[in-house]
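Annex B.
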Amino acid sequence: MKSLPLGIASSLLGLLASCTTGVRDIDLESKQFEATYNVDSTRGLDSARRQSLLNARAVYSFSKAGQGRLHTQIGMLSRDSSFTWKIKGDSLQIEGQTFAIKKQDNGYDLKSDSVMLILSQQP
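Lipocalin-like domain-containing protein: predicted structure tokens.
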């Protein structure tokens, strides 16, 4: 059995260690996810804002080069906005806010200090 040169082995170990979640840019690119807020995890929000989260529908569309679109709908009102994103280690950063990311069956769980989002992949 032949061993790898030390430089290659070190590079491979570094690559594996830097991506502990196994989530890569390509896993999100060109995909849409509906966001569900875990309302119990929203610290510091009053009951009216919590209720608005329950009534809101948000769809994140991740494009290449760290760009994306967020479509938010509350009742008859809707809004589209752009956002930037990137995978950094075992986290996903959206507009500078960092979320721990964990792969689930049909999407991802995102957790920050103040909220938990469940992203479910859309067809």
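Residues 9-19 have pLDDT under 50 and may be disordered. The helical segments are 6-18, 25-28, 47-55. Further annotation is deferred to the next reporting cycle.
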